[in-house]
TrEMBL record:
<dbReference type="InterPro" id="IPR050834">
    <property type="entry name" value="Glycosyltransf_2"/>
</dbReference>
<dbReference type="InterPro" id="IPR029044">
    <property type="entry name" value="Nucleotide-diphossugar_trans"/>
</dbReference>
<feature type="domain" description="Glycosyltransferase 2-like">
    <location>
        <begin position="2"/>
        <end position="172"/>
    </location>
</feature>
<dbReference type="GO" id="GO:0016740">
    <property type="term" value="F:transferase activity"/>
</dbReference>
<dbReference type="Pfam" id="PF00535">
    <property type="entry name" value="Glycos_transf_2"/>
</dbReference>
<protein>
    <submittedName>
        <fullName>Glycosyltransferase</fullName>
    </submittedName>
</protein>
<keyword id="KW-0808">Transferase</keyword>
<dbReference type="InterPro" id="IPR001173">
    <property type="entry name" value="Glyco_trans_2-like"/>
</dbReference>
């Protein structure tokens, strides 16, 4: 397995991500993992000491010119040599038993399945677990079942939870910068449409939620337009009926907008929260109708924001 770590000027996060791999794996596992770091930071990071006790392969590349988010992901993937790939951002990290759980699962099921979805702990910047997101069952979801889950739940896949066969990149392509910060959803769409996904009810990684996360700036109208393009691409696959796809898109957009609203509400950034919540007034969102699944939370957040307007 290749663990690809694209770095973005977060030296402490990079150290934590690397240590979560090298410190947790017994020596007998070292030859099963190679670690690739592509660094978009202004200056090179001193990482050699982190690998002092590591007998496996590792590679560090400092980008002389900043590549940007998607290009840096792809640069790390291009250097991977493992049969399977884990893309681990430098603000996320593996849990103590995460690496061994992944390797044991791949050893047992790697010949049968191509894409694996594990669980994650959602943590704050101080590594305190806020909640857990873990698949309910150990099972294979067919392409149709997998797309139904992916396109109905905006947070169905957390980045460090997904492992895929490297050869899939040759089949469907690398991350497409055309889709900006939603490019991961488009990539999972292509993976799942080809191979489905095997879900494993064990948490292997921590996914960090904080103000510096690259996703904080994605809650805007342009992202909704991009998401609309992804749903159009899903329609072209003909795996879900148009009626079912519209229902999925309605639920997805509601969850997406509410998640963005909540991120700013809990930071008491009322104006930013209001701006995100007002995405519900966009024509493309109104055309989808109201989501039964999310109507209660939508009403609650709307009432909260109205009250804050009256107070302020």
């Amino acid at each position: 397995m290749s663990v690809c770590i694209p770095a973005y000027n977060r030296p402490q996060g990079l150290v934590a991500a690397v240590r979560s791999v090298v410190a947790a794996l017994p020596p007998e596992y070292h030859d099963q993992v190679d670690i690739i770091i592509t660094d978009d930071s202004p200056t090179p990071a001193a990482v050699a000491d982190l690998f002092a006790a590591w007998s496996g392969h590792w590679h560090y590349q400092h980008n002389a010119q900043r590549l940007g988010m998607v290009a840096n992901w792809n640069a790390s993937l291009a250097k991977a040599s493992g049969e399977f790939i884990l893309l681990l951002h430098d603000d996320d990290y593996l849990l103590p038993q995460g690496s061994t759980t992944i390797l044991e699962t791949l050893s047992k099921y790697g010949r049968q399945f191509d894409v694996f979805l594990f669980g994650v702990h959602l943590v704050n910047p101080h590594q305190r677990c806020l909640r857990r997101q873990i698949p309910r069952r150990q099972e294979w979801l067919s392409p149709t079942q997998a797309l139904r889950q992916l396109l109905r739940h905006s947070s169905f896949v957390r980045f460090p939870a997904l492992i895929w066969r490297r050869s899939l990149l040759n089949e469907v392509g690398y991350f497409d910068p055309t889709y900006g910060e939603a490019t991961d959803l488009y990539q999972w769409l292509r993976f799942f449409a080809q191979k489905g996904v095997y879900t494993v009810p064990h948490a292997t990684a921590a996914y960090t939620i904080h103000d510096q996360a690259l996703t904080m700036g994605m809650f805007q109208a342009q992202t909704l337009a991009t998401l609309g393009q992804i749903f159009a691409a899903a329609a072209d696959l003909h795996l879900l009926s148009l009626a079912e796809l519209q229902k999925c898109q309605c639920d997805f957009f509601h969850q997406f907008i509410l998640a963005g609203t909540w991120r700013f509400l809990r930071r008491r950034q009322w104006q930013r929260a209001q701006e995100v919540y007002q995405l519900f007034d966009r024509p493309e969102v109104r055309a989808l109708g109201r989501s039964r699944r999310w109507q209660g939370l939508r009403w609650l957040f709307g009432a909260w924001l109205w009250l804050m307007q009256q107070v302020n």
